[in-house]
Write a structure and sequence with these properties.
Layout lengths: L1 H16 L7 H14 L10 H16 L1 H11 L10 H16 L5 H15 L2 H21 L2
Length: 147
């Protein structure tokens, strides 16, 4: 469960970055995690040391590869412009693509299932299908496109 919580924090932070860009993203992330932890009442939503570490890793990794990730999104969402994708769905898709393409620790199916569940929780029921479709295309194209 700790990685699921880490992913939730990661998408919340990635979502917030679309609206609140800063020069020192690492400090902004640390402040975000500190602030959100203060106001969590549910015991199961509090980050432990390994969850916090994973959150930091996946956010940094996603941001490090953001241009490549966005190109993959644009390529695999034919008929959709990036501006049309709901910001929360975009954060979820970006994180999942990072895990699928750049993080060998997470099986593609796990990254996809987690992304679908996050989309259902933080967006709409339809978002789960949209996220699944985009990620499915990327996974199928991994071998063909040298991803």
């Amino acid at each position: 469960m700790s990685r699921r919580i880490a992913r939730e924090y990661a998408i919340q932070f990635l979502f917030s970055l679309d609206f609140n860009k800063a020069d020192d993203v690492e400090k902004q992330l640390e402040d975000f995690l500190l602030h959100t932890q203060e106001f969590r009442e549910e015991e199961d939503s509090i980050l432990n040391k390994s969850s916090k570490s994973y959150t930091l890793d996946i956010v940094k990794g996603t941001l490090q590869h953001i241009d490549e990730i966005d190109k993959l999104i644009e390529f695999h969402t034919t008929g959709w412009k990036m501006e049309r994708i709901a910001r929360v769905d975009l954060a979820i898709i970006r994180l999942a693509i990072y895990e699928i393409v750049f993080n060998n620790e997470v099986p593609d199916s796990v990254a996809t299932n987690e992304a679908i569940e996050l989309a259902k929780k933080y967006s709409t029921e339809e978002s789960g299908s949209f996220v699944n479709g985009v990620l499915g295309k990327i996974i199928r194209g991994k071998g063909e496109q040298g991803i």
